[in-house]
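User: quick one, sequence for these tokens?
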């Protein structure tokens, strides 16, 4: 029997990006389905972005150590990863991501959104960037434009944000099955142990 798991993510979270390969492996090896939930990592980021130096100041570690840690993780996972100077507001990308989910193309959109930011350092708050992602996914660009204009998936994003707050989620990625949560980027062994303990069976 398929077990349902919620995954809370944000497109500007490097650890969410780094987990994508392990999540793909989990789906192949276990009878689990994943519902993508969006999370407000830096919701107050202006449209033109915020300097990462400002973000790094919030952590009790030297900036150089944080950057090197991220770089080493990307290299170990053999994932393309660019040097970035800014983080961008991901709210509109999240709305389009949930729209793509409703069209059965969520996985494609999430992959392209992560690459737009972490590989190409594109501003996910800009409509032309988002519509290019939609085009890369083979989705209807004009329908996506209407979603952005009418903000037709804004309430769906609000519901995910409210759900995350109600569950006490403060960081991403966070995996949720029933009442149990696994927080943060995890080695595959920890992720597989979590789902096994939640009663998920192997394929």
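Assistant:
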């Amino acid at each position: 029997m398929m077990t349902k798991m919620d995954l809370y993510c944000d497109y500007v979270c490097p650890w969410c990006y780094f987990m994508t390969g392990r999540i793909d492996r989990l789906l192949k090896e276990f009878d689990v389905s994943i519902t993508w939930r969006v999370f407000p990592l830096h919701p107050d980021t202006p449209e033109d972005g915020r300097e990462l130096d400002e973000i790094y100041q919030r952590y009790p570690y030297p900036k150089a150590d944080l950057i090197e840690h991220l770089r080493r993780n990307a290299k170990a996972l053999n994932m393309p990863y660019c040097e970035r100077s800014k983080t961008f507001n991901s709210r509109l990308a999240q709305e389009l991501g949930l729209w793509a989910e409703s069209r059965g193309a969520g996985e494609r959109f999430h992959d392209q959104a992560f690459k737009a930011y972490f590989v190409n350092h594109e501003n996910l708050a800009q409509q032309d960037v988002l519509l290019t992602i939609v085009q890369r996914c083979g989705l209807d660009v004009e329908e996506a434009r209407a979603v952005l204009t009418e903000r037709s998936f804004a309430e769906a994003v609000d519901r995910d944000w409210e759900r995350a707050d109600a569950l006490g989620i403060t960081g991403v990625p966070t995996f949720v099955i029933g009442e149990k949560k696994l927080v943060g980027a995890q080695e595959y062994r920890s992720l597989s142990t979590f789902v096994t303990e939640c009663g998920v069976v192997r394929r």
